[in-house]
Amino acid sequence: MGSRPVVSALTPRQAGERARQVLDEVGRAVVGKPEALELVLLGVLAGGHVLIEDLPGLGKTLLARSFATALGLDFRRIQFTPDLLPSDVSGAPFYDQRSGEMVFRPGPLFTHLLLADEVNRTPPKTQAALLEAMAEAQVSVDGVTRRLPDPFVVIATANPIEYEGTYSLPEAQLDRFMLRVRMGYLPVAQESAMLRARLDRAAPEAVLDRLTDPAEVLAMRAALELVEVDDDLVDYVVALVDATRSHPQIQVGASPRGGLALIQLARARAMTDGRDYVVPEDVKTLAVPALAHRVTLRPELWVRQINADDVIAELIESVGAPQTAPARP
Questions:
Q1: Backbone Cα Rg of the chain
Q2: Long-range contacts of 205-209 (CB under 8 A, 24+ apart)
Q3: Contacts with 99 (C-beta within 8 Å, 6 or more apart), sequence order
């Protein structure tokens, strides 16, 4: 990939200011989705992967491409289908007639930001190839392991309605997504404004500016590690995760990775809010996106149309949070 350009270290406040600029820029293209945009950016800053579970036509592809543009990241898209092979994702060796040697041809995984479209439409073997890339930032082909570019971010989409011809994501893969995002329909007034903006600019999409590059994204992630988390907030996160394991409506609770994700996302939210310390509200706001997809409800709850989001929201209300925020200048 060549030598990495040197970027001076950023403070959490500097990184947070840059992150807000990126958010504003992406908001020029993706209208009326501020909560979803913020969650995706928090996932990128926290070094995780994002699952967007929603209906077709709600701007998921536009969202991923817009973040890639504003962040200055290479972008590739894979449309997952039932006949997709692992080599179609990770790449494969081919015979070069000129040199008479086998040469590796990288697949679309070799990028900074990958949109994995309708990831639940591909068989488990191909899902496993994506899982290795998400978990280890590497691919293994013919016994050779190759590192992926840094940063490497997967934004995957899944249609929650159509189950015919789909393969459920295994719990191990769901757990690799730092958070799950739902976009939802635009309110009527905002949908009208979006259509009017499309007519006014006389072009399919807004043209976005590149605000950062891969090295600066890594510097923003490094700044995240300077955001402080007090012991009482760590205990609060552990209490929330532990509550998922004993809740009567939950069959399988969240893993320790869920607690790590919640901590890192809370630090990212603090940073984008201009703080270098986490407060209880950061944890409360992100508990559902970080934990709901990691729990398995008891089967009888499906009939009663109770979903994991509702159960996690109930836990947030029942688990006591620290009463005071840490004193900071």
A1: 21
A2: 205/29, 205/62, 206/28, 206/29, 208/25, 208/26, 208/28, 208/29, 208/66, 208/69, 208/70, 209/25, 209/69, 209/70
A3: none
Higher pLDDT, 204 or 12: 12
Helix (H, G, I), strand (E, B) or coil at 198: helix
Phi and psi, residue 283, nearest 5°: -70, -45
- Determine contact, residues 177/293, Cβ cutoff 8 Å: yes
SS3 for 100? coil
Identify residue 142 by its one-letter amino acid code: D
Nearest to 288 by CA among 264, 258, 324: 258
Task: Name the 3-class secondary structure at 101.
Answer: strand
pLDDT in tens, 136-192: 999 888 778 889 999 999 999 887 665 555 667 777 778 889 999 987 777 777 777
What letter represents residue 66's amino acid? S
Q: How far apart are CA 255 and CA 171, in angstroms?
A: 10
Residue of 234, 238, 225, 240 lying closest to 284 (CA atoms)? 240
Tokens representing 328 are 């900071």
End-to-end CA distance of the chain: 42
CA 66 – CA 29 distance, rounded (Å)? 7
Average pLDDT value over all residues in the chain:
86
Cβ distance 311 to 254 under 8 Å? no
pTM for this one?
Answer: 0.88
Smallest CA-to-CA distance from 107 within 95, 97, 118, 93 is with 93
Question: Which residues make Cβ contacts (< 8 Å) with residue 177, sequence separation at least 6?
Answer: 48, 49, 50, 51, 134, 156, 293
Could you write out the DSSP letters of every residue in 192-223? HHHHHHHHHHTSSSPPPPP---HHHHHHHHHH
Residue type at 137 in one-letter notation = A
pLDDT in tens, 78-97: 999 888 988 899 888 888 77
- pLDDT band, residue 299 (cuts 50/70/90): confident
